[in-house]
Design a protein that fits this description.
Structural class: alpha/beta
Distance between the termini: 111 Å
Order of helices and strands: HHHHHEHEHHEHEHHHEHHHEEH
Number of strands: 7
Radius of gyration: 29 Å
Number of helices: 16
Strand order of the largest sheet: 2-3-4-1-5
Largest sheet: 5 strands, parallel
């Protein structure tokens, strides 16, 4: 009897192993099998990861080659970003880090901070920003009342602890940090520090990205000075701007003002996003147009039309976009609608003219009647 039971369990074990490598439909059918002796429970995590996102490959698996290609091809005018991010992220994944990776993106609106965050998420997590392990925190939506500072700090701490407990490779993107209540981020200092664990949770493999417009004016000023000196923007290095940016945001109202994250050197990289020049914005327009209408994207007059609707500064040398690529989509949609309407009008006129010509050619000659 015992031998027969053992054979039965081995058969079921073989079936279970087959189900683990099968498609989700087969898993749903086979998942109802109850295997004695705890065999089922030994494989439940594998079965779960066949059906749902888990904190392991292939759901969490960086593709640095693809990430580097996208940063090069889809991010315009940001050589410092491209030079900084891949080494920073790769070194974080290649070894056991001593603390979480903390990146702080600074620059004017439309310079690409959210766009780059999306590229990072898409090339680490199979589901990108939709991954349950990617947490997007928007300051104005989640922390609107500055009088509730302590309550917000407690809520944020609980959120970080539960998220990283579920997945050590969690990514947190804090948007609009310049609009956060001052000192709110000081409440998460222990989670970003050099500790093996905080309240039993290991944060060292997590990634934090802060997005802020603070420091944008200082970065723009450096770009203007560089241009006025006749030097290409590509000569600017991260080291030229990091001290300027960190000092600026430390003394400017916002989430990082007088922050211990800066004074205790817990932000690993201040990443400056330079203001975009005309050629960069034109590239944004062309890229968007290619996605909407490949023919339209090849019309330089249309691209110039959209570019001409955007504002540039300074008045003495309007080389830099006031809104970066942020308003490109809206302006391009209107310009594309008008461009198509003009083409249709011309086509209709040409067709009408061709119809009249054909009718004249088909009409009988009165001299022949």
């Amino acid at each position: 009897m015992g031998q027969r039971r053992m054979v039965h369990q081995l058969v079921l074990l073989g079936l279970l192993v087959h189900l683990v490598t099968a498609d989700p439909l087969s898993l749903l059918i086979g998942g109802t099998v109850t295997v004695g002796g705890g065999v089922f429970y030994a494989f439940r995590d594998k079965i779960k990861c066949k059906l749902y996102e888990c904190c392991e490959a292939p759901y969490v698996e960086p593709n640095f080659k693809k990430m580097a290609d996208e940063l090069k091809e889809l991010v315009y005018g940001q050589h410092i970003v491209q030079e900084t991010l891949i080494p920073a992220l790769k070194s974080h994944f290649d070894r056991q880090p001593s603390k979480p990776l903390v990146l702080s993106f600074h620059g004017a609106t439309g310079s690409g901070k959210n766009h780059v965050s999306r590229i990072i998420a898409n090339n680490i997590y199979q589901k990108g920003l939709a991954s349950q392990y990617v947490h997007h925190v928007v300051a104005t939506a989640e922390f609107p009342d500055r009088t509730r500072m302590h309550e917000y700090q407690v809520e944020l701490q609980k959120r970080l602890l539960s998220s990283v407990a579920a997945c050590g490779r969690s990514l947190f993107i804090f948007d609009e940090v310049d609009k956060l209540p001052e000192q709110l981020l000081s409440g998460i200092k222990p989670f970003l520090d050099y500790y093996d664990s905080v309240k039993g949770v290991d944060f060292r493999n997590a990634i934090f990205i802060f997005l802020s417009n603070a420091g944008g004016d200082a970065i723009s000023k450096s770009a203007i000075v560089q241009r006025a000196a006749g030097q290409p923007r590509t000569k600017l290095r991260a080291g030229d701007l990091e001290r300027t940016v960190s000092e600026h945001v430390f003394n400017t109202p916002g989430g990082l003002k007088m922050s211990e994250l800066i004074s205790n050197h817990l932000i690993d990289h201040f990443v400056p996003f330079l203001p975009l020049e005309r050629e960069h914005v034109r590239n944004c327009i062309a890229y968007y147009m290619r996605d909407r209408d490949a023919t339209a994207a090849r019309d330089p007059a249309l691209l110039d039309d959209v570019l001409g609707q955007l504002q540039f500064y300074p008045a003495s040398d309007p080389a830099f976009s006031s809104s970066g690529c942020k308003r490109v989509q809206q302006k391009s949609d209107v310009a594309l609608y008008q461009w198509r309407a003009r083409r249709k009008e011309k086509a209709d006129a040409a067709a009408a003219a061709a119809g009249l010509h054909a009718a004249d050619a088909a009409a009988p000659d009165h001299d022949e009647i």
